[in-house]
Every structure is written in C-alpha cells, then in structure tokens.
Design goal:
Elements: H1 2-18, E1 24-28, E2 52-54, E3 60-64, E4 75-79, E5 85-101, E6 108-115, E7 121-129, E8 132-151, E9 155-163, H2 180-202
Helix pairs in contact: 1-2
Protein name: Ice-binding protein C-terminal domain-containing protein
Domain Ice-binding protein C-terminal: 177-199
Length: 203
Amino acid sequence: MLNRLIASLALAAASLVAAVTPAAAATVTFEDLGIQSWFATPTYDRYASQGVVFSSTTTYQTYDHWFSNSGAGNYSLGSAGWGNISGTFTTAVNSLSLWVGDEGYDLDRATLNVYDSSNHLLASASGSGTSWFTLSVLTTANIARFEILQQGAVAIDNLTFSKVSTGGNNANTGNNVPEPGTLALAGLAMVGAALVRRRGRQG
C-alpha cells in the first residue's frame, strides 16, 4: 500500500515538473487568405491576434499555389514586387521556422534574420531551392522582430514560432525558473522513486 502511494506521488510530481511553463507553438498557415485574387492585399496586422504583425510599409499579396506538391497548403503570403518581408512579434518568442519559396522552379535564395528588442542580431539562417525550403532559428534570448531577405521571387508559408511563458516574476526573460513548490515536488518524486526501488530490492 505504501509502495503504491509513494509511486503515485512520484508520478504526479514528475508530471507537474514536466508541465512547468511549457512553450506554446503558434503556426500561421495563411490558408485563411482564401481564393482572393493574385493582387489581393492582406493587411499587415491580419495575424496580430496570433502574435505576429507584418511591416506596415510593405504591400502584401496572396500567393496561390497552383502546382504545389510541397505540403505548404493552397495559399501563402508574398510582397508586392517580391520585396523583403519583415515583422514583429506581439509576444515573447524564442524560435521561428517558416517555408520560403514558390513554384517557379528557378533557384531562389533567402536569409532569415531575427533581432531582439534592441535591434541586435540574434540568429540567422540561409537556404535555397527550386521550390519550397525551410528556414529555422532557435535562440536563448527573446526574438522581437524578423526579416526575410530574398534573392528571387519568393513567398512565405507555415510560419511557426514558440511563445515563451510570460507568467510570474520570470515574464519575458525566456528563462523559466520553477517555483519553490515545484522544486519540492521534484525532490519528492526522486525520493519516492528511490524508496520504491529500494523496497523492490528488499522484497
């Protein structure tokens, strides 16, 4: 009976520890752009509620995937004149990944740069392809804004970013420190596991 109780406590504590301030991922697929015309202009703050706002100095257009087999969906976001695309996050973010490309089957190149709130470059990723390719960055500091510098006419799709937990005194730090109570539970989990192991050997 005691063994069962200790094991249950250990499992509960371990689950709580694993659940401490998880990073929530958000993905903007641009599928909501629907069957707008090629020259439709989605507004820069269309995805503000999801945590990202695009530069208001850029005119955007819907890119329709007529021949795509990439898994990038039916619609993407492009800029009029195929210029660079940039944006800011409305929440603390420490990773960013997105599809870049088109279906022109010419060789396109692009670079993803991410910056903190002081405009310091945190990370950079470059890639190229004749269809769609992925650019991804992961940082220990919070990403405030990003830019996609392109060489070739490319759109972006499946923009995925992790939202850092902003609860308690650790808000916006990107370093999620467990509460004292959680640390105590972690200790209980280890003690419980050790006791169960010891009783198993004695039995």
